Amino acid sequence: VDMQNDFVRKEGKLYVPEAEKTIPAIRELLRKARESSALAVYTQDWHMKDDPEFKIWGEHALAGTWGAEIVDELKPEKDDFLIKKYRYDAFFETPLDYVLRVKNVQNVVVVGTVANICVLHTAGSAALRWYNVVMPKDGISALDAFDYYATLRQVTFLYKGKVTSSSGIKFNSN
């Protein structure tokens, strides 16, 4: 979720200092997923000029800009799926649910930033659609410790998701 320059890089408009530290774990999960032919889905926060959300967060992830691009270390590959999203929830007015159902996905591993915003809303939305949510604690980042731990708590308590480390996640071959 949203591993984009505006969130991960110091020069980004909504820099999350801990986000860069999650890149190795996310990269390893992507490697394992691709090796087992599991579907890798990226979300990209994507806003048009004058988006109403800018009243909350200021301008960020402006369509077609450097800030909206996925960081170089995690660039999508040919068989990966990219969802451009306009709100916090990657399921809201996107084809994400359709794609997951067509691919018979039941378990979703949710990683990225910002933990208590887009990551949590996407994980919650997945759970409300009866997907099993798995969240590697070394694969998410927040602006502060409270928001990080609150996200993990919500995922386990409210959505009955599984919180683990990225090394504990195995993908089944399709």
Automatic annotation (TrEMBL):
**CDD domains in alphabetical order:** cysteine_hydrolases
Cross-referenced InterPro entries, in alphabetical order? Answer: Isochorismatase-like_dom, Isochorismatase-like_hydrls, Isochorismatase-like_sf
Q: Which residues form the Isochorismatase-like domain?
A: 1-164
Print the keywords alphabetically: Hydrolase
The record's Gene3D superfamilies line, in alphabetical order, gives: Isochorismatase-like
UniProt GO molecular function = hydrolase activity
Q: Which Pfam families match?
A: Isochorismatase
Looking up PANTHER family in the UniProt record yields: ISOCHORISMATASE-LIKE DOMAIN-CONTAINING PROTEIN (PTHR43540:SF6), PEROXYUREIDOACRYLATE/UREIDOACRYLATE AMIDOHYDROLASE-RELATED (PTHR43540)
Q: This chain belongs to which protein, by name?
A: Cysteine hydrolase
| Organism of origin | Candidatus Aramenus sulfurataquae
**What is this organism's lineage?**
Archaea, Thermoproteota, Thermoprotei, Sulfolobales, Sulfolobaceae
